[in-house]
Amino acid sequence: MTTHAAATLPLASVLPISSGLSAAGRLTLGGCDVRDLVERFGTPLYVYDVATLKAQCAAYLDAFRAEYPDSDVLYASKAFLNRPFARFIAEQGLGFDVVSGGEIEVLRAAGVDLSRVYFHGNNKSPGELALAVQSGIGRIVIDNEGEVALLDRIAGEAGRTQAVLLRVSPGVDAHTHEKTTTGILDTKFGVPIETGAAERAVRAIADAAHLEFRGLHMHLGSPIFEMDPYVLGIEVMARFIAEICRDRLGVEVPEFSPGGGFAVAYTGEQDAPAVASYAATLSATLRREADRLGFPLPHITLEPGRSIVGRAAVALYTVGARKEIPGVRTYVSVDGGMADNIRPAMYGAMYEALAAERPLDPPEETVAIAGKYCESGDVLIQAAEVPHLQAGELLAIPAAGAYQLAMASNYNLAYRPAVVMVEDGEARLIRRRETPEDLVALDVD
Ligand SMILES: Cc1ncc(COP(=O)(O)O)c(C=O)c1O
User: What is the Å distance from ligand 1's center to 3 Cα?
Assistant: First the structure.
């Protein structure tokens, strides 16, 4: 039973909104005591808070309905997806952005409305494109000039006309990590404007017999903490809509997507803009540019991934070995690591941790929280301020909902973790922990 509101907890700003404290002084998530969850489901355990997920979905729908009614919100599935989770997101009123045949198959298996699915990717295979066309995907987002002819042929063979967007790289730096920036010239994603490729691709789509050009897409990178990249990106795209599509090619642009990349805080010191601020800035910029350049306001689609799920989940680990190197560093190891969260090793992502069974205890030391896998780089947090952690106690790492399980691996033949959704004191298992049988299930002897 929860006795404290989330606001009184340390790291309250990055914990799920339903977080609290049990009568025994332990962290609760969705009204569930972390110790009870772990006794049922083990560690590492990923706990998604339904209240936070619902609030984030509603924040996007409400903010954009208010600022720009002709809009649709698509959840970027790559942040985290499985079948029950897809159904849950669809029930909240969101469509989906996918980047692989696998994501399409999971959405199909979940029974969601595929006409609200947008298919991205810089190297979609002919098989994936055929799957998308045949399953009635709402939009395919063409990413390069070669894909125009390929998709036109595939749509023709399927006897369909496929509605498409074109992903343009507008040449705008979103000031994110080099591995997560996508709107600049030197990126594998999208067709650049400045080389003339974007203009050629629009012309080719407009001329294609089996493609219907619906509009343009940009995605600048992730996470974007500032408004300026969106403003600059929309300005560049607006000029392209007016000067190239309309004036030079005579092509209307009824739809536009400014992509995703909306930031979330990972540590108590970080401050991400509110969803309403993104909505206000994006909408005002697009209205101003459409007005100034004289083109009709397009329908827009937003593609938040991280900011729908990031804060909603907490990763729970059991503390294990301790190694003190006097004058250098203390390592405290947990029973997960880079196999369930590659982000710190891959791009230096920052997190903070909480002693989950005594979250109000003040920090006593600064330690490195190490994973258990066979890489020196398997360190989840370089300098965590925590009480003196004891083997067997639980460690919580908040802001664990996005791009962690989605990038999880079986490195060292780790069992990928169980996932639960919590609400009103109830925990629902939505993915079981892997077993030894799973590890050999695909082997052919
Ligand atoms: C095309 C596209 N849209 C949306 C997203 C989602 O980004 P985020 O999860 O940061 O919102 C991505 C992320 O890679 C993307 O490539």
Answer: 37
